[in-house]
RNA sequence: GGAGGGAUAGCGAAGUGGUCAAACGCGGCAGACUGUAAAUCUGUUCCUUCGGGUUCUGUGGUUCAAAUCCACAUCCCUCCA
């Protein structure tokens, strides 16, 4: 199986601009790039697939360039609904640094920032030289722009695709970068770049684009969100435990696809897992393998160990047997609140955000949805006290099957 | 510029003087069953000190009583110019 065949098998190829790129990818002879606008300070699992795709290309020798969109990010790419809020220079810079750190953790890449070759470009050069290569009719027909023609789009965002095309052309010229990879929503931007390269460097210029499919969930909802929002790669924003839990909760219908798409387990290993998954689904071998592989990939062996330890403690049911040290380790990075020594359970639920109102708190208690230090508590008058806390320090509240909250006395 | 239609809870949508904290569907949350899955079933879904309080785009009015009637404002849609 060649690399490209494997990529296809893994469901990672949405489309390619030219079949000729396949052999070059397999031979590991390409320099390629992928870009990200510094609109946030961390990647989340929704972004992850294309980065892992890049890692796979890199693993056979292709050379990755990671492009930070310091310029494009300050413009904002057109999104379906409305204009973007412009970000300040400081925020963009900070975000760029954070993103680069995360990418470096995944694979070695040359870092470039499109601000460097854009900020000195004067308006006349832009219009006289580059502008002539762009046909407005063509630009208007890009999906991203078309979607906004009714509701309106500013000239600023309309110009975004030109800046992106400039990037590809620049990297082609300076680094002999022949390939851009991106999500399928980037197709328009990628082909824009190819167009520009062809116009400037002629038909013999060889450049390509490959897009990775959007990750879909079988039930149609958006991938990458758990309760409380996006699942981030940054452990400060999403703890390794929550990250692990996100993967282990993958529905049966999706889990084999996720293993193929996201993990670096070999084809044979995945087939082995699938056998067990089909024969004994209740063991959830596939979910466990997925959670393990992903947590280790992003948070390392220590993060995985931590996540598994917490999972073990919380789901084995022996919470009250945990020591203070174990709780501290387990709940590191998880939501916790300091409380006074004694507090009615109803208030404790509200303060810890386990319930959004007292009425809801009562309802949870009456439904038997609340466990205090591992035992169900149906008494509305129950008081959480320091004396009953584990090690006189921590009270662990569970609401529902898998929502945990830590109170520190 | 003219003529109509509309705005109701997270979303869709009933309700057109009191029986309305507002049907129903979706979504959310919880419980049961399971495997921390799916499907299914049950409960719940403005706040509350459980007395009550605050809601139906906004403001003012009519009325014992307004989501419901009237006036004005704002926004959206359709048709005509």
Question: How would you sum up this structure in a few lines?
Answer:
With 409 residues, this protein is an alpha/beta fold. It has helices at residues 3-9, 21-27, 45-59, 72-75, 89-106, 115-118, 123-130, 136-140, 143-146, 155-158, 160-175, 187-201, 240-248, 252-262, 267-279, 285-316, 324-331, 345-351, 358-366; strands at 15-16, 31-36, 63-68, 110-113, 179-183, 208-212, 225-226, 229-230, 336-338, 342-344, 370-372, 375-376, 383-385, 394-399, 403-408.
Task: Provide structural commentary.
- By secondary structure, this protein is α/β, with parallel strands linked by helices.
- The protein has helices at 3-9, 21-27, 45-59, 72-75, 89-106, 115-118, 123-130, 136-140, 143-146, 155-158, 160-175, 187-201, 240-248, 252-262, 267-279, 285-316, 324-331, 345-351, 358-366; strands spanning 15-16, 31-36, 63-68, 110-113, 179-183, 208-212, 225-226, 229-230, 336-338, 342-344, 370-372, 375-376, 383-385, 394-399, 403-408.
- It is elongated.
- The longest helix is centred in the last third of the chain and has 32 residues, at 285-316.
- It folds into 3 domains: 3-212, Rossmann fold; 225-316, Tyrosyl-Transfer RNA Synthetase (Orthogonal Bundle), CATH 1.10.240; 336-408, RNA-binding S4 domain (Structural Genomics Hypothetical 15.5 Kd Protein In mrcA-pckA Intergenic Region, Chain A, Roll), CATH 3.10.290.
- 48% of the residues lie in helices and 14% in strands.
- Helix 18 crosses helix 19 (358-366).
- The strands form 4 sheets. The chain has a 6-stranded mixed sheet, with helices on both faces. A 5-stranded mixed sheet has the order 9-15-14-11-12, sandwiched between helices.
- The chain has 19 helices and 15 strands.
- The structure holds one RNA strand of 81 nucleotides.
């Amino acid at each position: 199986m060649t690399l490209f065949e494997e990529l296809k098998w893994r469901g990672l190829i949405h489309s390619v601009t030219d079949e000729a790129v396949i052999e070059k990818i397999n031979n590991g002879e390409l320099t390629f790039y992928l870009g990200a606008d510094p609109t946030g300070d961390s990647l989340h699992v929704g972004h992850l697939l294309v980065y892992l795709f890049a890692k796979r290309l890199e693993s056979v020798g292709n050379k990755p360039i990671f492009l930070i969109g310091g310029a494009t990010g300050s413009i904002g790419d057109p999104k379906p609904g409305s204009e973007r809020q412009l970000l300040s220079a400081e925020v963009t810079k900070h975000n760029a640094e954070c993103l680069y750190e995360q990418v470096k953790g995944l694979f070695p890449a040359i870092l470039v920032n499109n601000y460097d070759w854009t900020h000195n470009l004067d308006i006349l050069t832009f219009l006289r030289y580059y502008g002539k290569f762009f046909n407005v009719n063509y630009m208007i027909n890009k999906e991203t722009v078309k979607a906004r023609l009714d509701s309106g789009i500013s000239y600023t965002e309309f110009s975004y695709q030109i800046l992106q095309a400039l990037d590809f052309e620049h990297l082609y010229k300076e680094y002999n970068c022949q390939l851009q990879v991106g999500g399928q929503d980037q197709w328009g931007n990628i082909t824009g770049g190819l167009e520009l390269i062809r116009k400037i460097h002629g038909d013999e210029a060889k450049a390509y684009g490959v897009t990775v499919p959007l990750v879909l969930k079988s039930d149609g909802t958006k991938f990458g969100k758990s309760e409380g929002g996006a699942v981030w790669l940054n452990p400060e924003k999403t703890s390794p435990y929550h990250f692990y839990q996100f993967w282990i909760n993958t529905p049966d219908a999706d889990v084999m696809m996720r293993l193929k798409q996201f993990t670096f387990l070999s084809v044979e290993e995945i087939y082995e897992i699938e056998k067990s998954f089909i024969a004994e689904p209740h063991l959830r071998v596939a979910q466990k393998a997925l959670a393990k592989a992903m947590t280790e990939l992003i948070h390392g062996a220590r993060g995985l160990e931590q996540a598994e330890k917490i999972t073990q403690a919380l789901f084995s049911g022996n919470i009250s047997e945990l020591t203070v040290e174990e709780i501290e380790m387990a709940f590191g990075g998880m939501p916790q609140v300091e409380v006074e020594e004694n507090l009615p359970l109803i208030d404790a639920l509200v303060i810890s955000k386990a319930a959004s109102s007292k009425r809801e708190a009562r309802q949870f208690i009456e439904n038997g949805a609340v466990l205090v230090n591992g035992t169900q508590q149906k008494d509305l008058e129950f008081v959480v006290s320091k004396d009953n806390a584990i090690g006189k320090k921590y009270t662990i509240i569970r609401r529902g099957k898998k929502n945990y909250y830590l109170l520190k006395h």
